[in-house]
Amino acid sequence: MSPAPTPLAAVVAIDGQDVAETGDGYYTGAPTVLSGATVTWGRGTVVDQPDVSSCTFTVARSAAGASGFVRSLNVGRRVDLSVSATVYPDPTISTFLDPGFDDPYAPQIPSANAMAATTDGRMWLRARDPLRSVGLILAPAPFVPTGTAPDAWDAIPATALGQTWGYGLDVLAPLGAVVEVRPVLYAAPWAESRYYTILDEPLTLMGDGAVHTLAGTFTPEVAGAWVGLGVHVYPNGLRWQEVDPAQTWADIDPAWTWLDYGTTWLDNVLVTAPSGGTVRSVLVFSGRITDQEAHFDPDTDRFNGGMVVVEMTAQDFTADLANNRIGDDPWPVESMGTRVDKILTLAGTGVTADVAPTLAPILVSYRDVDSQPAAGLITELAATVDGVAWSATHAVSGPYYKIEDPAERASVLTLGVDGTTGLVVVISTSPAGGISLSSCDVLLDPVRFVQDVSDTSTRVDVTWLEQGTDDEGKITTTDRHVVIVDPGLEADLGQRGVSLTTQLQSADDATDVAHHLLTRVTEHGWRLSGVTWATRYTDWRAEDILNALTLLDGTTRIGQPLTITDLPDWTPTDDDSADTYVEGGTYTVDETGAWQFDLTISSTVRGTGSSVPWADLDPAWRWQDFDPGVSWLDLLGVTGP
């Protein structure tokens, strides 16, 4: 069986300069990546914090002129590994998330003179001063807070150079108003991010009080941007003397008001991607060279005198922060989010953190910090609040900390009615955005189903710090403990415990953390290891391309829901599928450009994922409608129907 051509194009860049990725570079004398690259990232278990991510690769250069090249590869130089592929969105469907303005909170940026809002599935635009023009920028999807969630719009097609995109919308403008519509390109999913207006001839309408459809095409001048629309209107309403003197009140639609003569209505926004597909690029790794070794290889390209080969290792920003020691005046009791920002500011590296909103407000203890590694302080804080400090990277924001709340992941468990018993039970589901991978695509030999005592704990002991003062009025802290036990499991399996030392300053917060942790470590089941997706022989359907890009992306791969389907009969599971989350892995690209994903996945899904709010349960359900084997604790991390 011959390998299938890969649709994924990998590029290694050193200090922003792409390195040739095929052997063709040998003959031009260009530095060339010999054997692809290997990226290692993530954590080994659901109770660990992630390790430093690394990237290893080999670069060769013809012997002639190689000395200058090798001398330029100093430790500390930046290394980026990115992958791109063509994806195929439906060219007949608008890439706007809400083209009909069904959501009253449409993402928009009005000019200073503009008032805008949505009413009954349309957006209206008015001027504060009718003698001045108004402008409105419509974004393709809701904004997220600046600096957070750079992947928020990743599912929306982005531009590539030389492609033809369609755009337009329906407009109802009052008599005499001139409306201009142009494409606008966004660089990030933040309201404060820069945007670029296409200055080609706009779509233009002279208002007459009727609905008109404006439509056109444009060729983007910026790659990797998201398409929005800019609307400009002038004048914005008739002055009294501009009304036709022969017009009477009887001539006017009785539904119209004087305000309607100064209102422009917008609807049915249309932005369409090219039928030939769009290019999506993801940043797999970003870091700095930490180790390298150069040697001469006479057997590589022997006909041209051999090559100088450099074997390189790069590590992500957390390696720098592990060596960056900070000190400060004693820290008071403050929120975890404030403490994280303080540490990163003192580190002075420019790295930012996207902290889960459920974790950021939790208060942490007074602390007298003195010359501590910044990375250790961050991971300690994440563990304190039962979070995970991931080193993330994205094409929009570059490297950043993503401090995740595992309890808020997309749940792979939901409540449903058993077709046989009629009782409400917990069932598996595939959440939106989750990856489904058939066992037929997974290499058989590395797969193991493992079960040992380390996978199951029956109690959790969380240490917290009670705040106090000594005889001199100085702040003191005293270790206190919260112990949570699963008595039923402990009776069956004996006592096995997990301990966690935190910076929490209240018993209530410590109890909450203990409950979350116990739920994740009391799953008495089989752990799946050795899951390897080797894409060398993948047929590369559209979903395979999207799955590969999701696993490669330095942001979306974190905690990615993964369902392995079509499990054979011999596997020791109750179902023919396994619901997990991606916790890390080792990714390797071979000489053909095909990737192999050696994945580390969670051993349990209990307690992971957002839980259904009480108000969202089916109001017809009664206590006796639930399967008696489902405990209240079992519902942690389970969504509603």
Question: Could you please describe the fold and organization of this structure?
Answer:
This protein has 641 residues and is mainly beta. Among the domains are: 9-88 and 281-318, Elongation Factor Tu (Ef-tu), domain 3; 108-276, Jelly Rolls; 319-404, Baseplate protein-like domains (Phage tail protein beta-alpha-beta fold, 3-Layer(bab) Sandwich), CATH 3.55.50.10. The protein is built from 7 helices and 37 strands. The strands form 9 sheets. Strands 1, 2, 3, 4, 5, 17, 18, 28, 34, 35, 36 and 37 form a 12-stranded mixed sheet that branches. Helix 3 runs antiparallel to helix 4. The longest helix has 15 residues, at 507-521. It is globular and about 95 Å long.
Distance between the termini: 44 Å
Task: Report the major sheet.
Answer: 12 strands, mixed
Count every beta strand, where a strand is a DSSP E run of 2 or more residues: 37
* Oligomeric state of the chains present here: single chain
Low-pLDDT stretches: 22-27
Write the layout of secondary structure elements.
Blueprint: E1 9-14, E2 17-19, E3 32-42, E4 54-62, H1 66-72, E5 78-87, E6 108-110, E7 114-119, E8 122-127, E9 134-138, E10 165-172, E11 178-186, E12 195-197, E13 203-206, E14 211-218, E15 226-234, E16 263-272, E17 278-297, E18 307-315, H2 317-323, E19 325-326, E20 334-335, H3 336-347, E21 353-355, E22 363-364, E23 372-373, H4 374-384, E24 388-394, E25 398-404, E26 413-417, E27 424-428, E28 435-438, E29 448-450, E30 459-469, E31 475-485, H5 487-493, E32 497-501, H6 507-521, E33 527-529, E34 531-534, H7 542-552, E35 561-565, E36 578-589, E37 595-601
Parallel strand pairs: 21-25, 28-35, 30-32
Antiparallel strand pairs: 1-2, 1-5, 3-4, 3-36, 4-18, 5-17, 6-9, 7-8, 8-16, 9-15, 10-14, 10-16, 11-12, 11-13, 11-15, 17-18, 19-23, 20-22, 24-25, 26-27, 29-33, 30-31, 34-37, 35-36, 36-37
